[in-house]
Amino acid sequence: MRWAIVADDLTGAADAAVVFADRGISTTVWLCEPRKFPDGTCCSVDANARWRDAKSAAEAIGKHIGKLLTANWLMLKIDSTLRGFVGSMVQAAWQVSGRKWALIIPAVPKQGRKVINGKLFVHGQLVTEIDLAKEKPAPVTTPFVAERLRSTGLDKFSLENLTLEVVRQRNLLVQAIERAAADGLGLICDAETEKDLERIVSVAVKLPNQPLFVGASGLANALAKVTGKNSIKRRASLEFHPNRILVVVGSQQVVARKQVEFLAEEGVPVFEVKGENLPNLLKAKVSAVLLEPNWILSLSPHPQKRCQTVAKFRRWLKSSAADALIIVGGLTARAVFEAFGTSNWDLFGSLASGVPFGIARFCGRRLLVATKAGGFGTEKTLWQVVRKLQVCSKSLSKQTSYE
Description:
This protein is of the alpha/beta class.
């Protein structure tokens, strides 16, 4: 049994994959084509597509989907607020996958993302009313999932909506899913709870022709729970004792900034990075840096200067003596990983909802790395993650043991 995920950004690739790690399935996140994908594992690839134009986003998604066609379960992870050219991504994945039909559910009930009557809500607000909806390259102008997909490039497949009334009546649900599979539809399902997601997935996986799964961490969690019951579990414990923790925040989301403010209130030194100058970090057990948007990637288009900047960033991180990183923001995480030539990241599990962690190699050093999407969590989430890492020597080892 093998599970494959192609995601639009790095934090998304980790969010969707970590639910498999939480169930004891060996899980690796890749920033490139996977070098290995053994049986009994989950492979998640960041296609780095969210901020691209429609054509290049589709090409990036299609390229990676095409390398993972042997997976038993194949999923395209999209943003739970439908950012980016999601329609182009879905269409490319669907075409390349060869799957006849698609199951499309962006809901993440634990994070307040729900689909009701075909419309996407975030903590009770229509998705069009939240700050994230304004982001480029494709601002969200409709709360209807089907309309959003069509307006961002999905024009070669038919879509159908499934209401909560149908989702919660098994006979009707079975009939609707069987019809979608037979007719080659993209089935957009309402989902208000985790149980709704599990109901839908439990019916879909029993069909002989499996769909392309399209959604966010909520759908991935349901897929892991339903299909991972009989997988071979690994037993592992985290024998890693971080002495210094560095929080790197590049996300401009309001939630992320409030989380940094809370860190500062709790006594964590916070340094703001502007231009090319990097701060001299205090010898504190925990410190945080706020990077300008796309700091590493946008410093200069000149290759030589970029190389100099990356070298400076490497020296700076090494001088910080940090052995644990918490990175906030998908673009930021990708930039940091790329700066160190890090191609993969082995996940242990979740430190908190939406906060995967594991071990990655940075220039030969093994670092404990956790990531968080900028818009996820409460103002206390970052502080809670820091506290967990600070006391992880024994308690975290127990929490990350697998049955």
